[in-house]
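User: Design a sequence. Structure:
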């Protein structure tokens, strides 16, 4: 509870969230959400569907170049929900195919969900076996995502002042 971000401070109607550095400075750096609506009123736990949109998880969500929304979620284009969660994993976890899932396919899903969610980059990414991947795997996907969020580049390292990484392209 010491680090819990208070429910009454959570942005409504698509407003911006505070910077993580500001949340840390106030010791309010833990975001807690529930999928049970009544817990927001009874326990002060944020009902996730009031704050985020989410794509379909599991096999039904592993569709190339599309980002279907999860049934419980508002449509991905609903900008009154300021957070975007991207799922990319099979219905049944298979360690053997996670290398393939957690690589270029994951980056492609993040890009597809960017378009599907009204040109908003994901705030959260959920995968199985995050340490497994071809090339940079899920870590490279997050470097790409963070680069897009921070400075519009394809890699977060290109956002550093004086970077010569050459990975920066327009968002």
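Assistant: Done.
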């Amino acid at each position: 509870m010491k680090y819990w971000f208070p429910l009454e401070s959570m942005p409504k109607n698509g407003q911006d969230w505070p910077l993580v550095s500001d949340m840390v400075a106030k010791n309010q750096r833990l975001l807690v959400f529930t999928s049970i609506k009544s817990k927001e009123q009874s326990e002060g736990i944020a009902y996730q569907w009031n704050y985020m949109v989410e794509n379909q998880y599991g096999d039904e969500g592993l569709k190339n170049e599309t980002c279907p929304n999860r049934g419980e979620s508002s449509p991905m284009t609903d900008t009154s929900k300021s957070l975007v969660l991207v799922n990319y994993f099979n219905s049944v976890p298979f360690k053997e195919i996670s290398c393939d899932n957690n690589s270029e396919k994951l980056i492609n899903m993040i890009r597809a969900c960017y378009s599907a969610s009204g040109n908003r980059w994901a705030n959260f990414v959920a995968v199985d076996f995050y340490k497994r991947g071809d090339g940079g795997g899920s870590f490279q996907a997050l470097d790409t995502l963070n680069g897009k969020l921070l400075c519009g580049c394809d890699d977060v390292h290109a956002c550093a002042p004086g970077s010569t990484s050459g990975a920066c392209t327009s968002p």
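The radius of gyration is 17 Å. The first strand starts at residue 33 and ends at 34.
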